[in-house]
Every structure is written in structure tokens, then in C-alpha cells.
What does this fold into?
Amino acid sequence: MPRYYAPYRDHRYTRFSIGFTLGSLFYGQRYWINDPGYYRLPPAYGPYRWVRYYDDALLVDTYSGEVVDVIYDFFW
It folds into this structure.
């Protein structure tokens, strides 16, 4: 994956957990992990997408922005 760039200039890493709701800029298409199988992530179906957030992989409901699964320090 390419280097991560935060959607806001002064944004700093915050450790998100399951149930947190993200702003839409954090799970836009540029952050999608398009081939989760390549990274050995479980498949994402329906409105769910794996997205990169700094070094973490988040499974996000793209309708609501809710984080439904988190793998911390995935892209170290």
C-alpha cells in the first residue's frame, strides 16, 4: 500500500475502536483496501469496506461510517 496521508493537514493519529463513527473523508475510496485477500484480511461484503487508517486496518460501514472491526498496527 502507498504511504498514508491524513485527510486533514493537522490531524494526528487517534486509536479508534469498534463502534466509533468516522467522518466520510477517513473512509473515502482513496483509503480502501481493494484486495483484502492479498493482505490476508477477511472479505468485506455489502456496505462494508476495509480501509487504511495510518498503520491500522478498519472495517467500516460505508453508509454510516461506523467502525465494525479493527486490526491495530497492521501496516507497520
Summary: The CA atoms of residues 28 and 45 lie 16 Å apart. The two ends are 11 Å apart (CA to CA). The mean pLDDT is 94. The first strand starts at residue 48 and ends at 53.
